[in-house]
């Protein structure tokens, strides 16, 4: 008979057992569930709700169960529904009536709320650590090529010259916000729901604060109904991972473009690419493509959780069991990305000559000419128009922007001085962008330095 079977005379249909079980996926919560139960029974004994001897026996047996599961010696059975029932049944099987005291003053509704919070708290720390490693790989790559200039893009059109390191650091910034979002989410999820019971609290004299301290939470939850119904923290967590996925998807797209024959800016290491079963010459950027694909799953997991929770009446509803499917998928997907991306970045080789050659297009410095005119007192809109006419003139004549004489240039830009031809030097263009946040050599060197220091602590 199921642990809740007292009021039932009929048996659950076999198909329904398979339909309603969650042990196939929530077994990964066993350590959290055991930690929660150990803290709970310790408190129950301290409050005189159960005998100290029972608490001691339960606490010891919980460690035994944990070890059995660790070692793969624990039998899971869908008839026992979920991880809570499995562990409670194992206790009762071993300790009899003493074991049956564990669930005093507790419901699976506050128990699962506790388990997910403990799980996500650990995952937040883990993922943040892995995001730091990812950032470090990008910073290290940039540091190996501090002077490498490449075209920067807007609308996927060559726009202005930038440093390769500057481009990489843009992603370091994104990842930093991702880590911050997880840390922020961790703050809100680190509250202790046990003692909320099924929804209304408990008539037993539980000491919620003691359990809170024991499990390292910041405080106890304030409303028992909210405590068992709330999955905001799961939505926030999945949201942080969906944004992370969006960032790595963008990075992937950059790398896919850069490794194409058309760009030819980088060489991805063979270890992170695969070939074609048909076309012998192919080397495909699969890891990047798969990451772009996996980011779709992260978006989907977030949508699943939002859709799952919207429209649910107070308080706990069984729908919420499905939260773990999406949540675990999001965590696993993010971890998979974080396992493969940093080593791929570390082994990536930029093709310096190709990038520099693309950056040597004088058209990329057209803005520099307009800004030089501004320095000489020309209103920007006039300057823009004059340089635009110069670009048009060169196109019509089939010349590069740096292929005219100064006199020729003066036909469209009368203010042009002897300094102007020198403005087509991409290095000078980069060097001049010496504002905070700009791509200037000094600025980027300072940024690399900043990140090295930040990522070391
Ligand atoms: N397996 C359930 C879940 O994941 C645990 C809570 C079940 N509560 C209940 N009253 N059936 O949500």
Overall description:
There is one protein chain. By secondary structure, the protein is mostly helical. Helix content is 61%, strand content 5%. It is built from 18 helices and 6 strands. The strands form 3 sheets. It has a two-stranded antiparallel sheet. A two-stranded parallel sheet has the order 3-4. β3, α8 and β4 (219-220) form a beta-alpha-beta unit. α6 (108-144) runs parallel beside α12. The two termini are 54 Å apart. Arginine binds at residues 22, 26, 82, 108-109, 112, 318, 320-321. The site of arginine has 9 residues, from α6.
In brief, what are we looking at here?
The protein is mainly α and 457 residues long. The chain contains 18 helices and 6 strands.
Ordered list of secondary-structure elements with their pairings:
Layout: H1 14-20, H2 23-26, H3 30-46, H4 52-70, H5 83-95, H6 108-144, E1 149-154, E2 157-163, H7 164-189, E3 191-192, H8 208-214, E4 219-220, H9 224-229, H10 232-258, E5 266-267, H11 286-309, H12 323-347, E6 349-350, H13 352-359, H14 366-375, H15 380-397, H16 406-412, H17 426-432, H18 441-456
Parallel strand pairs: 3-4
Antiparallel strand pairs: 1-2, 5-6
Residues 22, 26, 82, 108-109, 112, 318, 320-321 line the site of arginine.
């Amino acid at each position: 008979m199921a642990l809740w079977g007292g009021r039932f005379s009929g048996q659950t249909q076999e198909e329904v057992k398979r339909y309603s079980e969650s042990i196939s996926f929530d077994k990964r919560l066993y350590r959290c569930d055991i930690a929660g139960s150990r803290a709970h029974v310790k408190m129950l004994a301290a409050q005189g709700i159960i005998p100290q001897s029972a608490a001691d026996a339960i606490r010891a047996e919980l460690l035994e169960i944990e070890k059995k599961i660790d070692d793969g010696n624990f039998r899971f059975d869908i008839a026992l529904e979920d991880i809570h029932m499995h562990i409670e049944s194992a206790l009762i099987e071993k300790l009899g009536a003493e074991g049956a005291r564990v669930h005093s003053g507790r419901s699976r509704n506050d128990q699962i709320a506790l388990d997910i919070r403990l799980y996500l708290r650990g995952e937040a720390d883990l993922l943040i650590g892995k995001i730091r490693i990812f950032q470090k790989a990008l910073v290290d790559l940039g540091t190996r090529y501090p002077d490498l200039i490449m075209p920067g893009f807007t609308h996927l059109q060559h726009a202005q010259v930038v440093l390769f390191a500057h481009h990489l650091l843009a992603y370091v910034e994104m990842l930093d916000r991702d880590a911050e979002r997880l840390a922020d989410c961790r703050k809100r999820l680190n509250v202790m729901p046990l003692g909320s019971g099924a929804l209304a609290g408990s008539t037993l004299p539980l000491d919620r604060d003691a359990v809170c301290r024991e499990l390292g939470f910041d405080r106890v939850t304030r409303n028992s109904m909210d405590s068992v119904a709330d999955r905001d923290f799961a939505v926030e967590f999945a949201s942080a991972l969906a944004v992370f996925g969006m960032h790595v998807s963008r990075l992937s797209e950059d790398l896919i473009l850069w490794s194409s024959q058309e760009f030819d800016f980088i060489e991805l290491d063979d270890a992170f690419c695969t070939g074609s079963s048909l076309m012998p010459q192919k080397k495909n950027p699969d890891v990047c493509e798969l990451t772009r694909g996996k980011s779709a799953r992260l978006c989907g997991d977030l949508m699943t959780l939002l859709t799952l929770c919207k429209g649910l009446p107070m308080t706990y509803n069984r729908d919420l069991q499905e939260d773990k499917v999406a949540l675990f998928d999001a965590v696993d997907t993010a971890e998979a990305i974080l396992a493969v991306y940093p080593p791929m970045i570390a082994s990536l080789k930029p093709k310096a000559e190709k990038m520099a050659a693309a950056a040597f297009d004088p058209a990329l410095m057209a803005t520099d000419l307009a800004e030089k005119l501004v320095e000489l007192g020309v209103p920007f809109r006039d300057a823009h128009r004059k340089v635009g006419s110069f670009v048009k003139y060169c196109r019509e004549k089939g010349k590069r922007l740096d292929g005219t004489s100064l006199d020729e240039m003066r036909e469209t830009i009368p203010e042009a001085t002897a300094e102007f031809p020198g403005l087509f030097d991409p290095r000078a263009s980069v060097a001049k962008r010496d504002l905070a946040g700009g791509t200037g050599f000094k600025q980027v060197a300072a940024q690399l330095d900043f990140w090295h220091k930040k990522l070391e602590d």
